[in-house]
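Hi D.,

Good news: the full-assembly prediction came through. Inputs first.
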Amino acid sequence: MTQAVKKQKLNKVEQAKAKKHPLLLKQELEHFAQIGWEAMDEFERDFGLKWLGFFHRPVTPGKFMMRMRIPNGILTSTQMRVLAEIVQRYCQGAGFQDQGNADITTRQNLQLRGIRIEDIADIIKILAQAGLTCVQSGMDNVRNITGSPVAGIDANELIDTRGLCRILQDAITNNGEGNLELSDLPRKFNIAVAGGRDNSVHAEINDLGLLPAYKNGTLGFNVIVGGYFAPNQYVSAIPLDAWIPPEDVVALTLAMMMVYRENGPRENRQKCRMMHLINQWGIEKFRAEVEQRFGKPLATAAEKDEIDWEKRDHIGVYPQKQTGLNYVGLHVPVGRLYANEMFELARMAEVYGNGEIRLTVEQNLIIPHIPDTRLSAFLAEPLLKERFTIEPGTLNRGLVSCTGNEFCGFAIIETKNRALAIVKELEQELILTQPVRIHWTGCPNSCGQPQVADIGFIGTKTRKDDRTVEAVDIWMGGKVGKDAHLGKEVMKRVACEDLKSVVRDLLVEHFGAKIKEETLV
Ligand code: SRM
Ligand code: SF4
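Then the structure:
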């Protein structure tokens, strides 16, 4: 432990970590299975197991959510089938009606729900056999590492991010086995690696964002640092004034993580993200410390590329850089998947593509490598007609929602179902000529990233007619991709039951929506 850490009055999580490193709980899984979830130590059950990727859900007592790690959001059909089998076999029962589910997350990842403590050890083995891991996906760890969803298939990409995301994950998790050294950060740590000019990964809201840039004719990355969202703290990353070639990505990331691990604040959990260290030191000192750890001088940032693109959502059919092949982006309403659909996706990826399935931070998915000759058969598949269309409604297309109170203990409101219902009604009532990105988040933690949306909602409560009702604070003006910036709060505590008409007005006033005549009468 460094002097900087020693001097601090450690918060409760730090005190518990100091007693027993939570990754070591892996050795006790059989014991937990024997004693059952109710007899477990509360910290170990509700927090410690998150180091292994298992999140106890007080909303469904005794049931755990499993958060995967899917570097760059890319899965094989075999892996998707294994995950579908886990949902089918282990995620059913109380609180899950007749079937378990999985959700695509805002970090290009999957979460599976409804797992019992008795099954965790078996599931970890099943994942390992399939080359998958869920280790270190929660608490004071690096989250899923996001990369360009069209890496390797986009004709206009600058850097293929797939290998980088993979080697970063392997280094940080010790090849999925768990890494005692790099899993004791002061708080969570988000990494995004952009590969194209449209910054499809929202690099600016990550603790470490890498943006492709040419320096003296060589392609590498400009480094931005310190982006994060926490309740009432919505902060964009700032430039480190550093450029690195791709081969230095892992070394620079590990150096920065060490600096943060050894010097980051560990007192008030609300003030432990890396930006707090940067604020405390100033960016110059932070850069110097990272440079020292890195072991060689950091080049200054490359000049900003002036030909950045608007962000794409990848829904629809697009030709790949490989002649005769296409990638097809499917719209998955608020990211929700069921086991039968996961099996179908695996089959379709094999029959029409090369078995690959990709996830996006918009909670949608892409099936790549479909030959021109197979395209029409693929597009005629029932799953595309019935559930995952390539032509969603103008509002549904950009709809993103966090988990909300269906499963999340922090949630102040219900999100996913409400998001779908309101958008459905508005699409019936309005003529919309431009897509509008609407993001929902059930509490100020902002997992649904409302600050990057055209219109964003943050769950809260308000009083109406002497009742306490679910409500939202409304944000507007978030911009992603080119000239990305966060939106601003424009309204407070709008009751959810009044929300549809408020949003309708916003759409008419700011996004050129017209009210359909038949709904006026
Ligand atoms: Fe998040 C905590 C869900 C992306 C900020 N987030 C949680 C927990 C684990 C709380 C809990 O234990 O119940 C939620 C699990 C609910 C559940 O059952 O699903 C949760 N976060 C999610 C997901 C699933 C939202 C979604 O529906 O897509 C996303 C999973 C990403 C992944 O695959 O790893 C998710 N969370 C985010 C993001 C967006 C991002 O990363 O781009 C943010 C804001 C960005 C950031 O972190 O800087 C985010 N989540 C938080 C925070 C606030 C962090 C802070 O510094 O205060 C918490 C609370 C915490 O960590 O104490 C949190
Ligand atoms: Fe849960 Fe809040 Fe995150 Fe939504 S924003 S998943 S309600 S912690």
